[in-house]
Amino acid sequence: MNAPAQLETFRAVIQETLGLALATEQDDRLARALTVRAARTSCKPAAYIARIHRGWPEEIGSLAAEITVGETFFLRGLDQLEALTTVIVPACAQRGDRRLRILSAGCATGEEPYSIAIQLREHVPDLASWDVSIRAIDASATALESAKRATYRPWALRETPDRLRARWFARQSERVWTLHPDIRSMVQFEQRNLAAADPFLFQRQAFDVVLCRNVLMYFAPAVAASILDRIADSLAPGGVLFVGHAENLRGLCDRFEVRTFGSAFGYVAAGSAPRVTERATEAAPASPTSGTNDAWIHNIARSTDRISELAMRAVTAPNAPRATAASDAVRPQRPEQLDDNERSAREHHAAALERADAGDLESAAELERSAVWLVPDFAIAHLHLGRLLRRLDRTDEARAELDRARALLAHEDPARVALFGGGFTRGGLGAICRAELAACGDDS
Ligand SMILES: C[S@@+](CC[C@H](N)C(=O)[O-])C[C@H]1O[C@@H](n2cnc3c(N)ncnc32)[C@H](O)[C@@H]1O
């Protein structure tokens, strides 16, 4: 089999086994993973692919570690963690039900489930009288080993206030913090593959709260849909699913409806009675449209609409702005004509622009990282990410992104230039890129 055909087979096998949709732009990552894992397991690449396809449970975790994105940090999505203790726990207590079964699905290196444990320890004074279980699963063996070690770099604690650092972490050295054993003991880690039917994990009504944040976006839509189906089956009546701030279930699963929980939004089974009592909801807006707390709920929807609107404007305007050179003649596709990764990357990029506008550079950079993961040749997203990282004083990372943008800009999709180029031509964007690189101390 020639190399491109082999890569195609590998891509299909990864989608079948791990559910991950890797676009052709991610061929470098795919090829590297194949080379590394085949060498480590002393297989020829073709034999490696065949063994994975047949089912190779001991290896799948290492392969996942090679190809998945594990970006995470403590107290990420704090509004959702707060919702747990300000809305969901009081509602359970009011019903006389002091049991809380939580699943962190796609827990990466443990920051998410440990943050849940910290949040509960901090804000539920009578936690000792509760029956709490926090299960945390991930496909990546390396991530799980790291989670169990529970030692973290300052970067993982970038959103953790000093007070919580001092209370729940011991500083081992300048750059290493170890998590308190009381928090570690609250979480059980398991290596599990979300893409596989897993009746032992997803038992009926097994969980009160499921966090599946910043995970679904990496899956092929059909796989994400079946994972959501399993989650829906496993939620207890009134149970809540939280997804990442940049994610939503539109077009994936109609078994959920969105509700507000304090200032966060989450999903409950469609048509289910509200678990949260009148009293508990008093603190929260009564409906997703009442008040400012719903900002996130419609954020992505708005982004999508904005993209549609811009695309339609570019198609229909008689005097569409001559932002691009004549050689860049633009025929933007309608959103429904875009492939899933491209559409999702554009949504992430649009959401990143909104977050940056609002001054939230960290979230903007995270969203932009997802955009370039989904579509690695998205030059404008690399450029924006580079600019954000420079503003965040992460100069080395900024330089790498800007270098990538500079290399990719010459071939940037004209539709993306028209939609996201801020009125600049490719040449203008190139000049911005060079100026940003110069500001990073790069004179070339
Ligand atoms: C970006 S991290 C999200 C971490 C955390 N949930 C958060 O929001 O900060 C995505 C995680 O999903 C995991 N993952 C990807 N495919 C998976 C699969 N098929 N089964 C289980 N976990 C998977 C990756 O290994 C990675 O750790």
For the record, what is the CATH homologous superfamily label of the largest domain? Vaccinia Virus protein VP39
Helix and strand pattern: HHHHHEHEHEHEEHEEHEEEHHHHHHHH
Count the helices. How many?
18
- The termini sit apart by 42 Å
Q: What is the residue-averaged pLDDT?
A: 84
Helix-and-strand structural type: alpha/beta
- How many runs of DSSP E, i.e. beta strands? 10
* Total number of domains: 3
What would you call the shape?
Answer: globular
Enumerate the distinct ligands: S-adenosylmethionine
- The spatial strand order of the largest sheet comes to 6-2-1-7-8
CATH class of the largest domain: Alpha Beta
Runs with pLDDT <50, length 5+?
277-334
Could you explain how this protein is built, in words?
The chain has 444 residues and is of the alpha/beta class. The chain folds into three domains: 3-56, no CATH class; 78-291, 3-Layer(aba) Sandwich (Rossmann fold), CATH 3.40.50.150; 299-439, Serine Threonine Protein Phosphatase 5, Tetratricopeptide repeat (Alpha Horseshoe). It has 18 helices and ten strands. It has helices spanning 3-18, 27-40, 45-54, 57-67, 78-94, 111-123, 141-149, 162-168, 181-184, 221-234, 278-282, 299-316, 340-357, 361-374, 379-391, 395-409, 414-420, 426-439; strands at 99-105, 131-138, 151-152, 169-173, 176-179, 187-191, 207-212, 235-243, 256-261, 264-269. The strands form three sheets. Strands 6-2-1-7-8 form a five-stranded parallel sheet. Strands 3-5-4 form a three-stranded antiparallel sheet. A two-stranded antiparallel ribbon has the order 9-10. Strand 7 (207-212), helix 10 (221-234) and strand 8 (235-243) form a beta-alpha-beta unit. The longest helix has 18 residues, at 299-316. The radius of gyration is 23 Å and the shape is globular. The two termini are 42 Å apart. Mean pLDDT is 84; it is low at 277-334. The protein binds S-adenosylmethionine (SAM).
